[in-house]
Amino acid sequence: PVVPFVRRGTPPVVEGRFEVELTDEGRAHPIFSGERFEQSLPPILSVFPGAMPKPAAQVLAKAKTPSGEHALVVVQRYGQGKVVALLTESLWRWSLEPREEDIYRRFWNRVLDWLAPEKEELQPFEVDLFAPVARVYLGEPIRLAARVGGAEATAAEVTCEIRGPDGRTLPFRMTPKTITTASGQTLPGYELLYTPEQSGNYQARAVAALNGKTARSTPFEFLVRSVSAEGTGRPANLDLLKKLAESSGGALVSPDEIGGVVERWAGEARQEVRVQWKSLWNQWWAIGAMIGLLCLEWTLRRRFNMA
Q: Strand 135-137 and strand 14-22: pairing?
């Protein structure tokens, strides 16, 4: 579920020599921001086509092929986590040419820096939304938590906009509360306990307002599963039970009548013959008698010089 794209039925890999172009999101993203990346990116020799980015994902770079443009670098936030997907197996070739070595090293340094955020990563006014789980059952509440501007900006008014499977978006007020991050840190933040009423895919986004400014978090997606039929109580099928009782020679009674039926049962006397046997090898006296007879035989043979 953390993969930021969906694959279609296309060939697994396309090989060739393809140019790489940054998207508008890529030029503004921390991974590719900077003059060195904006000049030009080295070509690649392979690409995995057919990747359709999810609604909350961002395509930072594309590969130009004869069949069209294909996503090359896709990123997405998942609550407190981040995901980077590289849809090529030839990116390491950037380091083979001396003029491209700096780009290859800087690319991976920035990817690692972006994937490993610090506690103070949030800007003075930025909101982040997350939850401990991404899948719940119908009728089970999900606990959505948000933090604004790190640990300082706690005076903001935060609402959570939740879009359900029917396409409707409903706002919910989040209450200030101390939250626990995935690393175990406790920070002042906001919380919403939401109980979904429909099964399907949901998308939540936190909106914070402070001093006339508004900040929105990246969407957080979660799945609501319907309860299986095995775990759902259903009324008894009396017609079916009655037919089963008649076909088996029994009778259908209500729970209140069970006591009377048991009392009417007449016990029937029955005699049984049981045979029990025991092995002599399991009796200590039998083994002792056998050993004694063997000793007696040996003594007599020795005394009378019998072979």
A: unpaired
